[in-house]
Amino acid sequence: MSIKGRRSYLMGCGFILAALLVGIVLTNTSEGKSETVKEAIKDAVLHETNKVSFWGIKDVNPAFISAIMVTIVLLFVAALIRIFVIPRFTYVPGKFQLLLEQLVGMFDGLAKSNSPHRNGFLGAYIFGAGIYIFVGTIFELFGIQWITTEDMSIALPAPLSDINAAIALGCLSYLIILSGGIAGNGLRGVGNTLKDFSLPVSMSFRLFGSLLSGLLVTELVYYYISLSFVLPVIVGIMFTLLHALIQAYVLTMLTALFYGEVSEPHEKKNGGN
Q1: Cβ of 76: how many Cβ atoms within 10 Å?
Q2: How many domains does the chain contain in total?
Q3: For a FRET experiment, which of 155, 186, 250, 251 has its CA 20 to 30 Å from that of 24?
Q4: Is 10 part of a structural domain of the chain?
Q5: Residue 82 structural domain
Q6: Residue 18 resides in a domain
């Protein structure tokens, strides 16, 4: 880059920074705040205020609408891939085929390494759960707007930022683990699974707490006008992508690990030996 080009680049950056500083100074007032930080965080957790109407049937949390949208999109994409992409797979894979094979192979390898005796259904489940967590988490980055019952516009949050969704996924994973114990060891497998009765609670709140932390940090950054320029974009994307990857891996790993433990066959001991 020439000296003239560098000067133009630096002048452009300086102009942008100056414009941001002017905007901060001119808008740095507390008169427009309609709620405190405590109220903003409480609503982000409990959704007592910003509810939305579900086709006029019932007022629900915004995360419920997000969950329906994510589910429909995933089912639609899965149908398209099954109908139009998979029948055209070739011996020498293309880029998209290679991506699908690597993705499926990763979850299949995770299932086989943790549960070598029974892993067919386990691989399919952790694949579905991992994709749902990842897509559901990055869903909030799209900023889809929805009208609340109080005629306010809000951005739909991630489905799993609602405690009910996190508990549902945690309990579902626990039931999958329980089914592996029954299939592998019958009543003994049930006993081994029920010993870890706190597992669904820990899985649910780990997932909920991690996803909610990113939401609350972004909420706090947006609340203070002096921080609400540029920084929320960086913070929001960073927290969202990290949580999407980490939580998808953590839940699928824990599910595969416990499934392998309870489904591992135990040899019966002979009484005379």
Answers
A1: 10
A2: 1
A3: 155
A4: no
A5: 35-263
A6: no
CA gap 245, 238 in Å, rounded: 11
Here the tokens at position 22 are 């002017």
In a domain, 23, yes or no: no
Reduce the DSSP state of residue 146 to 3 states and report it. strand
The two tokens of residue 20 are 């941001």
CA dist 222 and 240 (Å) reads 15
Q: Are 150 and 201 contacting, i.e. CB atoms less than 8 angstroms apart?
A: no
Residue closest to 59 by CA, chosen among 147, 155, 140? 147
The 8 Å CB, 24+ separation contacts for 172-175 are 172/129, 173/125, 173/129, 173/200, 173/203, 173/251, 173/254, 173/255, 174/199, 174/200, 174/203
**Within a domain: 19:** no
